[in-house]
Every structure is written in structure tokens, then in C-alpha cells.
């Protein structure tokens, strides 16, 4: 799983990649330095959690300018456009999030949101989530909206 946060024009994500399945229902850690935040050619920030291949399909569809997104029920993505608008993807639909000053997704989201409720920045919120969520960990990646 994952923790991805966005606040004050900064996106942060943990670096843990895990796998679970029929033979490993409890899962295991693959690596702790997985890159999860990408800057698209239009300047947007993009990140996702869930099945890595599905997240990559969505990213490539955005980069290619496709109107129709790949259908996936195994990932959730976030995109922050250069104008600061925040969009969330699930299934095949992008929805704009307009009613929140910050956002988090992934298995560590409840912990990260609670941290940001008390004033934590995006990076600190991921650090808090890592301390509580067994599926989040590793190196924290931080990207400002405008480099």
C-alpha cells in the first residue's frame, strides 16, 4: 500500500512497495525506495497507489493525452495540475477535489489526514503515517508543484 499527501503545493509519498497474494496473504516488503511521484510533461504532479501496473497505465494515458482512461479497480491516483487544482482518479473517472485544503490517499491516509488536521505539512504527515501504517515506509519522496 502507500501514503501519498498533498498540502500547500507540495506532494509527498512513502517509498515502500509491497506484494501480497494467495501465496503470501500477509504480504512482504519488496523495496523501500520506490518512486511514486512523477512530474508530467504539462507540469502536473501525479502519484498513485494500488497495483503498480495499473498506476503506470493511468500515468501513460495522461502523458499521451488520452481522453479515455484505462479501467482499473485496483488503483487510485492523484493529479495536481499546474494551476493547483487537485484531481482524484478511481475506476475510470477523474473527480476534482474542491472542498479540502489538503488531501491524502493510500493505506496511511487516515494517519496522514489526522496529522495534517493538526497542521502538519505533507512530508511530516507521511512520516506520521509511516510510524503507524504497516504498509507504508521507506524513503519519503517530496515534490513541490512548481520546481
Shape: globular
Radius of gyration: 14 Å
Structural class by sheet pairing and helices: alpha+beta
Order of helices and strands: EEEEEEHEEEEHHE
Largest sheet: 5 strands, antiparallel
Assign the CATH class.
Answer: Alpha Beta
CATH topology: Glutamine Phosphoribosylpyrophosphate, subunit 1, domain 1
In helices, the fraction of residues equals 10-25%
Structural domain tally: 1
Any key phrases for this structure?
147 residues, Glutamine Phosphoribosylpyrophosphate, subunit 1, domain 1
Account of the protein in words:
With 147 residues, the chain is an alpha+beta fold. It has one domain (4-135): Aminohydrolase, N-terminal nucleophile (Ntn) domain (Glutamine Phosphoribosylpyrophosphate, subunit 1, domain 1, 4-Layer Sandwich). Helices cover 22% and strands 35% of the residues. It has helices spanning 52-63, 109-117, 122-132; strands at residues 4-7, 10-13, 17-19, 28-31, 37-39, 45-50, 72-80, 86-91, 93-97, 102-105, 141-144. The protein has a 5-stranded antiparallel β-sheet, with helices on one face. β7 and β8 form a beta hairpin. α2 crosses α3 (122-132). The protein is globular, with a radius of gyration of 14 Å. The two termini are 27 Å apart. 35% of the residues are buried. The model has no long low-confidence stretch (mean pLDDT 92).
Amino acid at each position: 500500500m502507500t501514503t501519498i499527501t498533498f498540502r500547500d503545493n507540495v506532494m509527498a509519498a512513502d517509498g515502500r512497495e509491497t506484494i501480497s497474494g494467495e501465496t503470501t496473504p500477509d504480504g512482504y516488503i519488496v523495496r523501500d525506495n520506490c518512486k511514486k511521484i512523477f512530474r508530467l510533461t504539462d507540469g502536473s504532479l501525479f502519484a498513485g497507489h494500488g497495483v503498480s501496473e495499473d498506476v503506470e497505465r493511468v500515468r501513460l494515458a495522461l502523458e499521451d493525452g488520452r481522453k479515455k482512461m484505462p479501467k482499473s479497480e485496483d488503483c487510485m491516483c492523484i493529479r495536481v495540475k499546474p494551476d493547483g487544482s487537485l484531481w482524484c482518479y478511481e475506476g475510470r473517472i477523474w473527480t476534482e477535489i474542491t472542498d479540502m485544503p489538503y488531501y491524502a490517499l493510500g493505506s496511511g491516509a487516515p494517519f496522514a489526514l489526522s496529522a495534517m488536521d493538526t497542521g502538519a505539512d505533507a512530508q511530516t504527515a507521511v512520516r506520521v503515517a509511516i510510524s503507524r501504517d504497516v504498509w507504508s515506509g521507506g524513503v519519503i519522496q517530496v515534490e513541490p508543484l512548481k520546481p
